[in-house]
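Sorry to interrupt, but I need a hand with the structure work. Leave the record below and I will have a look:
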Amino acid sequence: PISHAPGGGGGGGGGLAASIPLKEVGIVLLVDFLNSFRSSGFSSVQYSYLVDEHGLSDLHAASLLGTQSWLMVVFGMVGAVAVDTLGVRRTSIMSLLVATARRLVVIPFRTHWLATGPDKTPRQVSRALITFGRARAVLVFSLLVLFPFGEAVLATGIYTVALKKLTTAESRGFAFGVQYAVFNFAGALADLSADLLRSREYLLPGYGPLSGIRAHLLVTWAAVLLSLGVALLFLHDFVLVPLHADARAGGAPPDSSPPLSAYLEQELERLQASATAAERARGFVIAPDPRLSRGHYASFDARPIASRSWSCAARRSWESTRDLLGLRAFWRALWWSVCCFWISKQWGDLDQLLPAYLERQFGESVPVYRVHSINMWICMLGPSLVAGLTSHIEALRCRTLAKRR
């Protein structure tokens, strides 16, 4: 059964702020901020980490990162299915657990200090999560197995999905603009962290000296742990349910995600009856996603399955696929996805190669990561302001104008 979530903090204020559940949206933005710091903080130093810390050649590092990129495409598709099937909360927690384990592998404390053996001869001792002789193999395992699952799933926009479920068509553009600003602000801070730490060496108690790049990666690991804690304690699959919309209205796009048609009639009646005066005044309640509620699908007794044979299942699958391929909106979305994929590939490669190029071309004294952060600061302000000012315009028209610019 669906019941309204406690503390859906949207009351007070006017305009767009009054139509957004501030508490739930704030939690999503906090997790997204930590996720962006974690992701950007590693991706911008990844190339230098492979070459400088592990001694890989440029060609070897490029081949590893290229293979990793294509694996992320595959795992990203898996992640998209996981979000629809398991929900944002469970997908996020699973991916963050993998990312946490990956940081334990990627930050091997290859620290050395002098120790005295039985013969009083100084010798080097290394304490690490992995032994030095196997570090290269474990690094490859991390890049090609743990990284694609943990990072690609988190990069599929699962927190954008959560934000969409907590907004209406009126407030969604503004909320996405704020999210994009938060995302790029975290990335810019990660660049500043890398620049501040990279040129120094640190002494970690119990382990010995730690290079600046590894110290920065340790900071990103702290961000992973924080985001995992927030997800475990506060992130839930809540959705915004309008109280005054008609679930049977056709023609126009649904105002909420999921649409009201995803609810049973008695569930909507229960929500309306249990709404507080403040919730009725603002026009919505916050409730668990009906598609993920336990036992929800069991209540659809009016839709019996005529046959459970493989042939019948295959026929229904083909009919669904045929209907999907016949939708103009599907092909339009596919075209935009392909375009955005190649743009993001170019952007992602530049993120990794630009700092290394600047350092080799202009020397180590140049604040390469602060130069890299200029793009983040611009993206924090420009697109976010445009998204807020154009939230009343249909999304495709906005994106077409942006592409032409």
